[in-house]
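Aim 2 progress update. The chain analyzed this quarter is reproduced below.
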Amino acid sequence: MPTTAPDVVFIHGLWIHSAAWRPWIDLFAEHGYSAIAPGWPGDRDTVAETRDDPHGLDGVGIAQIFDHYAALIAGLDSKPIAVGHSFGGLIAQELLAHDLVRGAVAIDPAPIKGVTALPFSQLKSGFPVLRNPANRNRTVALTAKEFHYSFGNAISEEECNAIFDAYVIPGPGRPLFEDATAAFAKNSPAAVDTHTAVRGPLLLTSGTEDHVVPKVVTLQVAKLYADNVASTTEYHEYAGRGHSLTLDNGWKDVADDVLVWLGEQGLTPSGMQTVGVAH
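Predicted structure tokens:
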């Protein structure tokens, strides 16, 4: 019996609504992949609705986000592929380490426990939340100026403002506090089994101009996986790209690269053996 499960589950990051994955879903469909992009627990159905009432996200942390996607995937007919951006990339790694998905792509992922690098641009990007400890249990909105520094530093202000208007929503403060204190928390929700988990293939990516998750951070993540010889981990780098790389005018270059990598790893659509991408 053919499966009705999606091939891919897209997972968005902090401050971005799941609607931003629509171009990716459409492109992946052209290559035979069915895909869904469920929001985080507390997200509303649309950008406007979430902006109007973001308080369902108050206090939502990494563990709740992971549990939300794990439960969703447990209800599917078969294991999908997880593709996540930013904090969605951290969640994708956790799902893969728990063998809940058959492969994962973590695009400019939020750092996992074990990363020690803390570049200035990353600290400044998180400052709108981290500057006030009370934000741990609140939902916090970025201004257009803050979004331009953190996400849109590699694109024009005009393009950045258009992305802000289309997709940006308030986000819970808790994940940033949990990530910032991961090194000091014995049972951090940002911990991932990088060493012993026998799992499907993992692709880590970085934009070289990313302010939110600078390249040095993702390179440290890749090193944490280096001794896991039983499982495939690869790293791809996108020159001149910032944290908006899944959203801006160059998104298709990243998506095409992901599609090629999925095909190389045998992570093909249901009922297909190969997937090609025109360049």
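The beta strands are 8-11, 35-36, 81-85, 103-107, 139-140, 171-172, 202-207, 233-238. DSSP finds ten helices and eight strands in the chain. These observations will guide the mutagenesis experiments scheduled for the next reporting period.
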